[in-house]
Amino acid sequence: MTVKRSFPRLAVAGATIAALAITGTAHAGQKPAGQKPAGPAKSFDRTATYPVFLNRPAGEDPTTETVAEISAVSEDGRTLVYTDALARRIGFLDISRADQPRGLGTLSLTQLGDAEDEPTSVAVVGRYVLVVVNTSASYTDPSGRLDVIELATRKRVRSLDLGGQPDSIAISADQRYAAIAIENERDEEATPPGGKKGDLPQAPAGFVQIVDLHGSDPQRWSLRTVPLTTADGRALPALTAAGITEPTDPEPEYVAINGRNQLVVTLQENNGIVLIDLPTGRITGAFSAGTASVDRIDTVKDGVINLTGSITDVPRESDAVAWIDDRYLATANEGDWRGGTRGWTVFDSRTGRVAWDAGNSFEWLAVRHGLHNEDRAGKKGTEPEGLAVAEFGGTRYAFVGSERSNFVAVYDVSKPTAPVFKQILATTNGPEGLLPIPSRGLLAVSSETDNAAVGVRASVSLYQLGKGTPGFPSIVSGPDATGAPIGWGALGALSADPKQPHLLYSVTDSAYAKTQVFTIDARKSPAVITGALPVRDERGEPVGYDAEGIFARPQGGFWLAVEGASGPENKLVRLDAAGVTRQVVPLPAEIAAGLGKQGFEGVTATTDKRGREIVWAVLQREVSTDPASVVRIGRYDVTAGTWSWFGYQLERTDVPGDWIGLSEITVVGDRLAVIERDKLNGPAAAIKRIYTVELPDGPAAPGPLKVLPKRLALDVLPALRATNGWTQEKLEGLTVAGNGQVYAITDNDGVQDATGETVLLRLGPSAKVFGHR
C-alpha cells in the first residue's frame, strides 16, 4: 500500500510596539536588541482576515478542511496565490483592496496530475505561477514536479520532473534562477538499521534543484541538480567537516537567495546550513546551526505559566531562513525531532558564527501578549517556524512567525547584528506563509490550521504599514518582581476597583491549574496587567477554581463566581484582600441538579437599603426544569444566607449546534447589565450583546420564575469585527470603571481551540452606552 504525506512549510508576518523591553543575546560585541533608539513612528495594522473556506469550489461542504499554507503574489501585488495541500489545490485571492480581499476560486491539482498530488510551495515569476508539487508514492519512493501555470488563464504551460519530494522554492531577485529544496523527508515511523524509530539516515538522500529561468518562455527553462551527497550516497566532505548530524541524509528544508545569487539551504533535521553559488551550482560553504541554552522559560506542561525553566545545549534545527543582506542570514529555530530553541538567530554567512540570538525574548513576547500556549510548554514552546525579510520605506524588517502561539513578531534589522523588536501581529491559528509585499506596504500571512468543529478556520490575513496606532494589542502584561513578563490568559471576567478609577480586575478560569486575580491599569493603551494575586483555599494552599466571574468588594477582597464541571460544583467564593478563600456559598441543590457543565458565569454585588451585601450571579445556561431559553439571575443575601431567583429570556439563532447563554453581570445605576452571546466566532458570529434589566429591590416573590424585561444597551459585534481579525467567540467580561468608562473583554481560552487573541474593548462612557446620567 502506498501512502501520501503532506510536507508543507514556510512563513512571514507583523506585530505591535512593546513597552516592555524584549531583548535577545548579542554576539561579536554587539548591543542586545531593544537598546537602539526607536525608529520611525510606523507600524503594521491588520486590515482584513479572509477565511479561505469561503473560496471553496461550488458545492463543497463548508466544513471540509481547507488551508492556506504558502503564498505568493503577482508582480503588481494584487493577486495572491496560496497552496492548500489538504484539498490538493491552489487558491487565488484578489487583494487589490487591502481591506476587502475577494476569493477568485481555486485550481485543483487533481486536474493536472494525480488525485493525491499536494502543493508544497508556490512562487510567481512574471506572468507565471510556479507550483511545487509532491507526488510521492511513499517515503522510500519520493517524487515531485514543478508545474508552470499561466496566471491569467490558469492553464499549465509546462511541467518539470523534480526527481524527488520537494519542499520550498525561492526565486532570485533578478529572476534568473529558481531554487527548490528536494527534501525526501524521513518517515517518523521507520527505524533505520542500528537506529531508533524516526532516526536518520533514511534513503534516498535529498538534494537541491536549480531552475535556470532562461527568459520569459518556460519552454526554455531547464534544471540543474546540486547533490548534497556523493554519487554512491556517501557524505560530502564539506558537510562532514561542518558537523552536520547525518550528512548522508541531508533533508534540505528551506531555501532563500541573496542579491549575489547565493543560495542558503537549511537542513532542519540535521541542524545544518549550506551555501550554494547558483550560477555555478557549487557548494561554497556549510556550517552547523549549533546549539543554544535558554533560561527563564516555561518548560513544563502543568497548567502554570512558570518562567523559571531552562533548556541546555539544544540544537536549533532551523526551519525558515532569509537573507538580511548579502552577508547576514536569519533562521527561525522551530526544531524537529531533537531540537528547537524557541527563538531565531542571525548568522554571519562568511564565518558561520552566531551574530545575534533571540534567547528567551521570543517566548517572552508570547507571555507578555497573552499568547503563551501552555499546552506546548514541555515541547518546543512558541515554535518559530516562518521567517521573512523585506524593506519597507527604507527600513528593513524581519518577520518571525510563531506556529503555536499564533503571532508574527516584527523587527527592525537595519543593523543585522542588533535587531530591534518593533511590534507583534496577532494571526489566526498556525501562521505558515509570511509574504511581504513592499510595493503596496502590505504583509500577508496565511495560516495552516483549520478546525470547523470549533469554528476556527484557516485564513489569509493582511496587514498595512502606516502611521496609525495598531489595534493589537489592547492589553499586555508588565514585568513581575524578577523582570519577566507576568503570565496571563483566559480573562473571562472583569470588575472595577471600588476606590481607584483607572484600575480593573480579572481572574483566570480552568485553562490554568492555579487561579490568579490580575490587576489591570486601564489608563494606558494598551492596558497593562500590573499584578497577579495567587488565589488560595481555606488552608492557604494554591487552588484552581474555574472562576468565570469576579467582583471587587468595597469592603475588601473579592467575590468569585466559580463554574463547575457539573452542577453541584458551582459556587460563590469570597476571598480576602490577600486572595485567601474566606467563604464558600454552594449553589442550592435543587438548582444544581438541573445544570450541566455550564453554570455560574458572572458575579456582582450591591448594598441594600438596610446595609446588607447582596450578591448577584448569572447562570450561563438553562436549568432543566425551567422554560426553554430562560436562564436564571440569582440574588444571594449574604447576611440571611438565602437565595432567590429571577428569569432572563435568551435570544436564538438558527445555526445548528449553536446555543445562547449569559457570560457576565454588573451593576449600572438602577439596572443590571448582562452579556448575552452565542457560541459562534469568525464570520458566523451573530449575538454579542449587552442587555440591561431592572435591578430588583428585593428578593423574588414565591411562585413561578419571574422573567425580567430586558432592553438592548449595545450590540458589541461591530466593535469585535472592527479588529479586522477573527471575530472572537467568548465575549465574557464587562464592567464600568470608577472613571465612568465601560470595558469589555474576550476570553482567549488559553490559546486552546481559539486564536488566542484577547480583545479589551473600550466601549465609551457609561452614560452613552447605557443612556443614564
UniProtKB/TrEMBL annotation:
Residues 1-28 form the signal peptide. Keywords: Signal. The keyword Transport does not apply. This is Alkaline phosphatase. PANTHER family: MESENCHYME-SPECIFIC CELL SURFACE GLYCOPROTEIN (PTHR46928:SF1). Residues 487-749 form the Phytase-like domain. It comes from the Bacteria. It comes from Micromonospora craterilacus. Gene3D superfamilies: YVTN repeat-like/Quinoprotein amine dehydrogenase.
